[in-house]
Amino acid sequence: MPPTMKDKILDAAEKRVRGAGFSAMSFRDLASDVGIKSASVHYHFPTKPDLGEALVDRYTSQFKEELEQIDTASLQTALDSYVALYSQALVLDETICLCAIMGAEAIGLPKNVNQKTKAFFKMNRMWLLDLFQRHSVQNPEDTSCLIVAALEGGMIVASSSDDRAMFDQIAKAAIRSIARI
């Protein structure tokens, strides 16, 4: 089934936000990206906060589907697969995790978008918490928070340094030292 105009707008918005941030994205830019008038973007998403909320909802749903596919029988294998999800989201000079950029902009985000971004991070922490509890990792709540923070922060540092190896180094250190594997 071909993508709907709403999907095309969301795709264009995600690319722009992941590359330059939510505040830098405009409906006019999105309209140009998909070949429609700005009013048509407003037809699908009346306001920028509406678009931001739909964008984070879609990203969270897609990420959740990926999380549900991870085999959690082995802690190391599960963590390697989890880190791989973040690694796939990091494309130097182009994009980082949508919620990493949204989290970095949290102070200026509309309330509804910020709440959806918080829900993304909570989903990740809860997934890790469950994993760590099942594998008897010490301090599972603290450890889940630290892993998410290390990976999200690692993406931002690697992107701003234009050095993907920084993300890989941070991810390995987080898994090794925080999860005590």
Strand content: under 5%
Proportion in helices: over 70%
User: Total domains, how many?
Assistant: 1
- Overall mean pLDDT score? 92
| CATH topology grouping | Tetracycline Repressor, domain 2
Low-confidence segments:
none
The total count of helices amounts to 9
Annotated CATH architecture: Orthogonal Bundle
CA-based shape: elongated
Q: Taking Cα atoms only, what radius of gyration do you get, to the nearest Å?
A: 17 Å
Order of helices and strands: HHHHHHHHH
Task: Report the sheet with the most strands, covering strand number, pairing sense and barrel closure.
Answer: none
Distance between the termini: 44 Å
Structural class: mainly alpha
Description:
This protein has 181 residues and is an all-alpha fold. It has a single domain, classed as Tetracycline Repressor, domain 2 (Orthogonal Bundle), CATH 1.10.357. It is built from nine helices and no strands. Helix 4 (48-68) packs parallel to helix 7. The N and C termini lie far apart (44 Å). The relative contact order is 0.12. The mean pLDDT is 92.
Task: Summarize, please.
The protein is mainly alpha-helical and 181 residues long.
Main attributes?
75% helix, 181 residues, single chain, mainly alpha, 9 helices, 0% strand, Tetracycline Repressor, domain 2
